[in-house]
From TrEMBL:
Name of this protein: DnaJ domain-containing protein
Residues annotated as domain J: 9-65
PROSITE patterns tied to this protein: DNAJ_2
Transcription listed as a keyword: no
Length: 254
């Protein structure tokens, strides 16, 4: 302990105990300064001792400003709270330490922001508990729900898109889900059908000569670009409508 903070020697110098109040401490200091100062005592004054007393006195005041008590004094215990006063410590005191019931709202808002919760025991003493930390689980669940909704929305949009019929006979829309109102595509060759439709049903011919498309032992006969007849061999049956052949549609005029 340095000379400036030898508070035991300070109290001994002033004839006080560490539990004295600040006013009593200052009175004892002024009295002792008068006893040591050469201006008052003449040659009997003790200037080095006075200077050491001043340093210790200044250090004691600094300690009091920082801790609200003199060095060595026990921390002040809160006084019993009168019935009906708020349970929050300091909420009912103004800047000078006087009771002010109007300060409750400010104290509660400041303590709520700091994450502290207050309670009181049976004796009315304030108990400060740290509020439980806020976890990120509610926010995580909200993000998961949003992601699920986004996936469902994309799935629904894709289903709506594929449900729309395509005008292209060979387009994917008709093959996957033709939808309502989609044109019905022929599955058999009929008399009067054009070459494009025959190619779609039977595929490309093996050979073509004199308006006849050969499919192995079977063939389809065209006139002016339209079907006028065919032969479907048992060895290679064609997808044809025999009823339309028997009906005997008139041959087209080129």
């Amino acid at each position: 302990m340095s000379d400036d903070t030898d508070f035991i020697a300070l109290y001994k110098e002033l004839g006080l105990s560490a539990q004295c109040d600040l006013a009593e401490f200052k009175r004892a200091y002024r009295k002792r300064v008068t006893q040591l100062h050469p201006d008052h005592q003449g040659q009997d004054g003790d200037m080095p001792r006075l200077q050491r007393l001043n340093r210790m006195y200044d250090a004691a005041l600094d300690f009091h400003r920082e801790h609200a008590r003199l060095p060595g004094a026990a921390p002040a215990r809160p006084a019993p709270r009168p019935p009906g006063t708020p349970a929050h410590p300091g909420a009912d005191l103004d800047d000078e330490g006087n009771f002010d019931p109007g300060n409750d709202t400010l104290a509660e808002s400041g303590l709520a922001e700091s994450g502290l919760a207050f309670a009181s025991d049976e004796r009315g003493s304030a108990i400060i508990d740290e509020a439980p930390p806020v976890t990120g689980k509610p926010r995580s669940r909200r993000y998961i729900m949003l992601m699920v909704l986004a996936v469902l929305l994309l799935y629904w949009w894709g289903a709506q898109k594929t449900a729309n019929p395509s005008l292209d006979p060979e387009g994917p829309g008709d093959a996957v889900n033709p939808g309502l109102g989609a044109p019905t595509l022929a599955r058999e060759v009929v008399v009067g059908m054009d070459e494009a439709q025959v190619r779609r049903i039977l595929g490309a011919p093996i050979g073509v000569h004199d308006g006849r498309w050969d499919y192995g032992p079977s063939w389809v006969q065209f006139q002016c670009g339209q079907v006028v007849g065919w032969y479907s061999s048992p060895l290679h049956k064609l997808q044809v409508d025999e009823a339309s052949l028997r009906t005997g549609a008139a041959a087209p005029h080129c």
